[in-house]
Amino acid sequence: MLNRAIARGLMGIVPERFIATVTLLPESISPTVLTCYQCWFKPVNVTFATYGNVAIQGDETLLKVPDDQLNPANNGREIRPRDLITVDGIGYNVISARLMSVRTVWECLVRKSIV
To answer: Could you tell me which residues are beta bridge partners of residue 34?
Structure first.
């Protein structure tokens, strides 16, 4: 059985990690900007027509953000649609997000931001 400690240990074998700036845009208060280390991209399976309730257009990708980077003190922060993730100066709009892998990783369906 996979538990949280094993899931965190397995995250160490993922290649090509990078730093991402996550801007959380809540409904009522000012945005929260966080720097998250150890993030990575994962391609979307090309056989998917939808991901969750979102129709795939072909220019999306999955961006993984470790929950312990987003919530270092168990603050209860969540990544939601409309939030912005910046990697190497490129902005990505979050289309869909869910907490995966025994609540250790946020899997975000993102699309490059058009400025």
So the answer is: 22
List CB contacts of 45: < 8 A, sequence separation 6 or more. none
Residue type, 27: E
- Take residue 100 and report the two structure tokens written for it: 């995966």
- Enter the pTM of the model: 0.81
Can you tell me the distance from the alpha carbon of 41 to that of 48, in angstroms, rounded to the nearest whole number? 17
Q: Where in the chain are the domains? A: 4-81+102-112
Cα–Cα distance for residue pair 29/7, rounded to 1 Å: 33
Task: Specify which residues 22 forms β-bridges with.
Answer: 34, 85
Residue labelled with tokens 């999955």: 62
Looking at the predicted structure, is the pLDDT value of residue 42 above 90? no
